[in-house]
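During the no-cost extension, the postdoctoral fellow (Dr. R.K.) reprocessed legacy sequence entries with the updated structure-token encoder. One reprocessed record is reproduced below for audit purposes.
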Amino acid sequence: MSFLFTVGTLVVVLGVLIFVHELGHFLAAKWAGIRVHRFALGIGAPIPGLSFRRGDTEYSICWLPIGGYVKMASREEAAAAGGLEGAVPDGRPVEPGEYFESKSLRARMVVILAGVTMNALFAFVAYTGLAAKNGEQIDPVTTVGGVTVDSLPAGAEALATLQPGDRIVDINGTAVASWNAVVDEIVSSSGDSVTIALADGRTVVLQIHRAALTDRVGAALALVPLHQPMVLSIQPGRAGDRAGLEPGDTVLAVSGVALTRWDELVARIRASAGTSLAFQVGRAEGRREIVVTPDSVVEGGVTVGKVGVVFQPAIAYASRPYGFGEAVSVGFRATIASSTQIVRTVQGLLSARISSREVGGPILIGQMAAQTARLGFDAFIGFMALISVNLAVLNLLPIPVLDGGQFVFLLAEGVVRRPLSVAVRERLTQVGLVLLLLLMVLAFSNDIRRLLGW
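Re-encoded structure tokens follow.
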């Protein structure tokens, strides 16, 4: 069932975003007066029974469920493109003014860039809608609760010197007033390093280049804000219920030891099977002490303590609704920030600051889509917006089979005042196709390695 859910969410994400991308090319071609032979999802020949014609255009779903295409009338039917896009469907003869090559250079540039523009517009609308719906959710804490030392990336070792209670006031010269800002500045700030200033005057420097985005994210996630654990729910009849814990209780200390993170509490409980623990909890009516004796439960041949309670960090989010103008501004900034991070990821891969093992393909996208779908509608739409920006940026790479490569051909035509020869473009397109296939092989092999735990 989980496999079907993953496949289903992958189909939704890629299906919608590929449709949006190709719709951009289609609408721009119609605007320019170019004959569109086929609007297709997938590549290759159309699947019989899953195609229909309206006017001069055939709308199809094709055999290979990767990408899509808009087949326009062209005097230069390239062999490589023909193999990917299938044969031209029958129809009335193409008028001389309906060919792609018959249009002005500016019109052809608009058609080529329309796909990535639609992907960026989709992300902008999604981010704007989420901002208008949810407003601003701020975690107003800048105090460190702890550091996950065993997951620190290279260059972030200095974070291990931070102690619970250290308060962050400034990162790379920018004052921070929330944990949101702490994470954003560590991940997104410019420069070849990250300087974190603390309230007591100390500074911590992370030697992580801005292009090493994976390491920047890893460093930000290794920092845990100061949030005491709170009781979310209790199983009736279990140890927590018998002791008198209630939903909403904030656990401040256990047997005299103050807590700064919910995972510390979980670890303490698991290590205390059958041993009484004195919970100091905070409630609306004040603090009180509750003695809890974890039940002994065998997991994987090891006896651990459990109390039948689900804990979560006690976060007092500050919420502020956005007006329409603010939501639009937030959506625009989020789109720019997403595209900037993806560009930096590509830079990191090209400079070897990010390992090629980080490249993911459809399997990874499907897994992440399923995870975000389980978190709710907002998380799923936010993920789709991010992937849409990803498609836009990657399609702008100057690889001939991608939109960016085709745009470079048009730029060259504008410079030399004539199109590049068909032979040169076909040869470059074949090289680009090989590069794209190699990238796909890398992505799929990485996905399979992750599935197999290699």
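Residues 211 and 344 are 5 Å apart (CA to CA). The mean pLDDT is 87. The remaining legacy entries will be reprocessed before the final report is submitted.
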